Amino acid sequence: MTKDTDNKFLNVGLLILVTLLVAKLISALIMPRSQKRLPPVMKGWPLIGGLIRFLKGPIVMLREEYPKLGSVFTVNLANWKITFLIGPEVSAHFFKASEADLSQQEVYQFNVPTFGPGVVFDVDYSIRQEQFRFFTESLRVSKLKGYVDQMVVEAEVIEFLTSQLFLLFTTV
């Protein structure tokens, strides 16, 4: 009786294995392959990838991998895949890519708390472009120089109020 049960389990296991292999073969033949060339991937341990090397020192890791893999390569860091673009000739692709090719909104979601909701990376592309135009104008060197006097006045006011509060609490 146990020999029949063992044979059934073996047959079911083999059937599942063969089914998976055939399905993989059929999908490889039928499914069109992407025409996009993906960047090379840094070799690393399964699952953790280059996480340990990255944590030891990302600059050292990048300097070691750049000569081997070139100016564009991917590093697996646990469950994230991070692609590095090193140098101005390839970095331009990142900054000038269309929203359909490279979504800055997805990449920079961690910055939403920095700017607040409804600002920069928490809005759709057209509004973000409008906001960037505003930021670009406000952050020009000539404009930044004009902010210095205002910042000095604000710092002096804060210093004065702080000293007055200190005096108020120390005399009571």
Order of helices and strands: HHHEEHHHHH
Proportion in helices: 55-70%
Strand content: 5-15%
Helix count equals 8
Total beta strands: 2
Compute the CA-based radius of gyration.
Answer: 28 Å
Largest sheet: 2 strands, antiparallel
End-to-end distance:
94 Å
Mean pLDDT: 82
Instruction: Return residue spans where pLDDT drops below 50 for at least 5 consecutive residues.
Output: none
- Identify the overall geometry: elongated
Strand pairing plus helix content: what structural class? mainly alpha
Main features:
mainly alpha; 8 helices; elongated; 172 residues
Can you characterise this structure?
The structure is a single chain. The protein starts with a helix and ends with a helix. The radius of gyration is 28 Å and the shape is elongated. 63% of the residues lie in helices and 7% in strands. 5% of the residues are buried. It is mainly α and 172 residues long.
